Amino acid sequence: MAEPTDPAVPTATPAPPSARSAAVPGRPLSAGVALLATAVAVINLLVGGVLTVVALTGHVLGAWPSPDPLSPGLLGAAMLGTAPALFTLARATTWQQARTLVLPLVVVPAGLFAVSLVNVRRLYIAHGGPIISVFFSLGWLLTLGLLCVAAVICLAGQAFTRSGPAAPRTVPLPGWAKPALAVLGSSWLGIGTGLLVRPGFWADFVPWQTNRVDAQALGVWALALGVGVLGSLAEDDLDRTRPALLSLPGTGIAMAVVLAVRAAHVDWASGPGLSLIVMVAGLLLAGASGRLLLKGGAGTREVPGGTG
User: Fold this and answer.
1) Exposed (0-12), middle (13-18) or buried (19+): which is 296, by Cβ within 10 Å?
2) pLDDT beyond 80 at 1
3) Which pLDDT value is given to residue 135?
4) pLDDT, tens digit, for every residue of 105-145?
5) How many CB atoms lie within 10 A of CB 3?
């Protein structure tokens, strides 16, 4: 005979899927943004690896002619340095954890595509050259154009992703780190904006030989680094900026290797040369110190109302 049900023990009713998804703190990271980050990471590994290796051998490969292998080599190094962080970005669960790296991720292809279109007559595809360079410039334009379209679609999808309850900041930046990050981010942002907007003037401050397109392309990457650093400062939470923290030392190490191999081509005694050393070292120190603080759990606390 069946036993009677005890009325004192309520039967649990599972929450509907919509309620469970809304209970996740913060705005969930959309699948589109995660896929975009992975795609860019793969492209960065392939293209960045080729550009870096060719530059280290003393040769020039790129979508346009460059007077020195150092400029395309640094572009490749920046791609390689950010690739590991982009792979980890795909494992983030919320938009808050990803946006400090997604914003520079969008700045780079959009900026490089704009620079390529403005200087299209200087590309190998327009005025001719070695067959490999011509095909490289064609692939360069097509890939950047597709990435720009994909970024618009993915960010639009992210904007319409339903947000859950406010996610508090759990590991705020220590006070002593904020002034240094502000100076570092402003330095990269300032030099990047100058190279992008007035390449004829600011190219003279680059401590090696460059042309207009080199200067603007380097400016795009400098601008993206500035946006990333200042974005991390505005986020004010080390836990949210884990992918961005990984990209800083990765980019700094890759750039340092290229600069060390091509050191004879850099005017290290000049003011820009010394500034470059400080700025690259700043990337390494910012990323390394952030990872150490996260690992040690220094300053861990919950900031009420910190939604972002």
Assistant:
1) exposed
2) no
3) 94
4) 999 999 999 999 999 999 999 888 889 999 999 999 999 99
5) 5
